[in-house]
Amino acid sequence: MTGTSHLSDHRVEELLDLPSVTDVVGTAFAAWGRGDAATTQRVRSQAAGAMASAMAAVAPPYSGGKVYATTHGEFTFVVILFDMEGRLLCTLDGDALTRLRTPAACALAIRALAAPQPSVAAVIGAGKQGWSHLLMLAHELPELTELRIHDRLFDEAEVMASRARARGIPAVAADSAAGAVGGADVVVTATQSTTPLFDASALDERSLVCAVGATKHDRCEIGPDVVERCAAVVCDDVTGSRTECGDLIQAVAAGRFDWADAIELHDLLAGNVTVPRAGDGPILFETQGVALQDVAAAGLAFERHTAG
């Protein structure tokens, strides 16, 4: 470890911006689809009230992974970055990286799958990831005219909407999830809900739903009725979704979805498959996050750090 850099969350925030992270993560997913990159599923161990998780990836010219602890709902992330010869390049705090690489995946889905000229968006969940995704939507939707925010704590939605308006983003608080998503072109769900947030009837035919929060089998933001209604279901990793994505696990158990119909984001970005944009029916993008995103974003931070 002698001489090896460690990049703090503050330094990562100085080095990275969401559009650049989105581009580098998109390049990594396309490489995965071509067979030139690889990523593992997340593994977890739990005892005495604590949980530790880890995942790894090769995203040339880098390899590495992320390990993190979860205690009382709080996360402590560390990312390790190697070159292709196995030399340790740096370690990084992982909170800022996670807040950037997660909305980057949804940004890629928007670029590939959203209906033309999306102008209305909704964010369900006013936490850290909700804010990160709000900023992503403001960048990815240049014709945005209204961004609706809903949270089970209405005051939190109002605070986030006010914070967004201070940055020139046309945000409003919504008193229900169904009211927020009705007529929205892009919907982001970033909650820890264990029950569906809205019924299928609330969605517009043009809606692209980016579901972020169902990262465990017992969570459910998107109900089986919504999954069944969607014209396509795209996952950041179908294999991982089979054990982690509560939305799809519950839809399969209800007989409303078949894993054979799930589409890989990396195949879409590599051009291996074609998926029509939202318009003739809603489209669902499910993301639990993969190490490929962390390694690709960490590589960009390292490059910019070493370049001064």
Q: How would you describe what is shown here?
A:
- The chain has 308 residues and is of the alpha/beta class.
- 38% of the residues lie in helices and 25% in strands.
- Helix 3 packs across helix 4 (128-140).
- The longest helix has 19 residues, at 95-113.
- The mean pLDDT is 96.
Give the gist of this structure.
With 308 residues, the chain is of the alpha/beta class.
Task: Please give the structural blueprint.
Elements: E1 5-7, H1 9-15, H2 18-34, E2 38-39, E3 43-47, E4 50-59, E5 62-71, E6 74-83, E7 88-93, H3 95-113, E8 120-124, H4 128-140, E9 146-150, H5 154-165, E10 171-173, H6 177-181, E11 186-189, E12 208-211, H7 224-229, E13 232-235, H8 238-244, H9 246-253, E14 262-264, H10 265-270, E15 283-286, H11 291-306
Parallel strand pairs: 1-7, 8-9, 8-11, 9-10, 11-12, 12-15, 13-14, 13-15
Antiparallel strand pairs: 2-4, 3-4, 4-5, 5-6, 6-7
Strand segment count: 15
Number of helices: 11
CATH class of the largest domain: Alpha Beta
In terms of structural class, how would the helical and strand content be classed?
alpha/beta
Residues in helix, %: 25-40%
Strand order of the largest sheet: 10-9-8-11-12-15-13-14
Query: What is the radius of gyration computed over CA atoms, rounded to a whole number of angstroms?
Result: 19 Å
